[in-house]
Design goal:
Oligomer: single chain
Strand content: over 45%
CATH class: Mainly Beta
Order of helices and strands: HEEEEEEEEE
CATH topology: Lipocalin
Number of helices: 1
Strand order of the largest sheet: 1-3-4-5-6-7-8-9
Number of domains: 1
CATH architecture: Beta Barrel
Radius of gyration: 18 Å
């Protein structure tokens, strides 16, 4: 009986450790802190969040700080893919097309190079712009 329990535990641990092991572990909510553009100018950000679920689903959330703004929160959905271990492609759902101009990249999709990914910090690069996130 004890052998079966031990084997079951080992099997579950093995299966869990193999799930999506080829992809970077970006799952969770990340707060965008800074954007450094090609010229070296750094923009501080504190109201934008990227959320990833199951290495496939993506949510962009922007909290608007001004009380008189029409929309206090903007939430858009999309999908994420990893064509390579250090590459992430975000494709927004077309239902949010009228709001793409509010995204940091202002279009339906973006490709990021993953420069750094730890359990607390993520640094992404796209076309010379550097995006620094902290785990939220």
């Amino acid at each position: 009986m004890k052998k079966h329990v031990l084997l079951s535990i080992l099997l579950v641990c093995l299966l869990v450790s193999c799930i999506n092991s080829a992809w970077p572990d970006v799952d969770g909510m990340w707060q965008l802190k800074t954007i450094k553009d090609k010229t070296g100018r750094i923009q501080t950000v504190d109201t934008i969040y990227y959320s990833f679920q199951a290495q496939r689903m993506f949510t962009f959330s922007q909290l608007n700080a001004l009380p008189m703004q029409f929309e206090s929160t903007l939430i858009m959905y999309g999908y994420v893919d990893f064509p390579a271990k250090d590459c992430m492609v975000i494709q927004m759902d077309s239902s949010g097309e009228g709001w793409f101009w509010k995204l940091p990249w202002q279009s339906k999709s973006i490709t990021y190079v993953i420069q750094k990914l730890t359990c607390k910090e993520m640094i992404l690069e796209s076309e010379g712009d550097i995006y620094r996130f902290i785990k939220f």
